[in-house]
Amino acid sequence: MTSAPTSNAARPPLHTSSGPAALGTFEFTTPALPAVRALELLDTYYQHGGRLLDTAPTYGPHPDGTFRAEQLIATWLRTTGVNDVHVITKTGLNPDRPHLGDLRPDTILDQARRSADILGTGFTLVLHRDDPNVPLGEIADATDQTVRSGYASALGASNWTTARLTQWAAHARTANLTVPHVTAPLWSLIPRARPVSEPWLVEADPPHLNHAAEQGMTITPYRTLAAGYLAAHHTGRHAEHHTTTYDTPTGQARRARLHQAAAMLRMTPHALALAYLRAAAPRVVPVIGPRTTTQLRQCMAGAATAGSVTPDLVAYLEARR
Fold this sequence. Notes:
- There is one protein chain.
- By secondary structure, this protein is α/β, with parallel strands linked by helices.
- The protein has helices spanning about 15, 35-45, 70-80, 105-120, 135-150, 160-175, 205-215, 240-245, 250-265, 270-280, 295-305, 310-315; strands at about 20-25, 50-55, 85-90, 125, 150-160, 180-185, 220, 285-290.
- The protein has an 8-stranded parallel β-sheet with strand order 7-6-5-4-3-2-1-8.
- Helix 2 runs parallel beside helix 11 (about 295-305) and helix 5 (about 135-150) crosses helix 6.
- The longest helix is centred in the C-terminal third of the chain and has 17 residues, at about 250-265.
């Protein structure tokens, strides 16, 4: 196993040490974001106070079937020598079956071990999908084993329902196992159209956010800009997804209000959209996926202004007044 790039000692909650946003790495090393540009983003992110990287063994996909984001992160950590950056990585997703999880205990342990060999130890291990075919007790035991074995320092879940998160936490406490401390739902200012186009992705709603607050969980939402729909300009690569998922009467109203408020505050719409998320619920660290250092700076600056987003502004953006 490689040496740990980050300390395996007890850590403060992620939201207290992450900086204003987490840097998503799905496109790292792909043609859309080659390694040189990805490394530049990592440097800029760190310079602007970012301390939390979000990755997975299935990030950085290449045509040859390999995935290289974890390795690039490990290279950056090693060459820069930074020791105050934390990494979230994941387990339990076969990219050929994105609608299904694979949380067999052997899968959880094997993927955690392989990530530790690349990244070092001490990361937060997040279950990328749920897998109701595996008894919850077996999942809780296996994830706890990743912590006891020294691979992971904390646990979490992405795309788990509130009910399943509640059950996992309750079982873990009863059995004296490691309790999940992170939830990563799909969440932006605009809720998805119904019926949803990807029903296996779990979207944050008030009960989910309330559960996270009650449990003291850090929330690391993804698709925080509604796949680019909330930005002032987008490339068009998600245009079809925008049409079917976000371009609803509610979405149009909220987008218009976001752009109007951003102009008045002299912010970019995507910066205000991130500030909104951090203001709308406690312990939120939105995951961002910029392709340029300019976008990254705007996102970090916007997320850092969450304290100036008042309840009245939240209500206005949500078209409640």
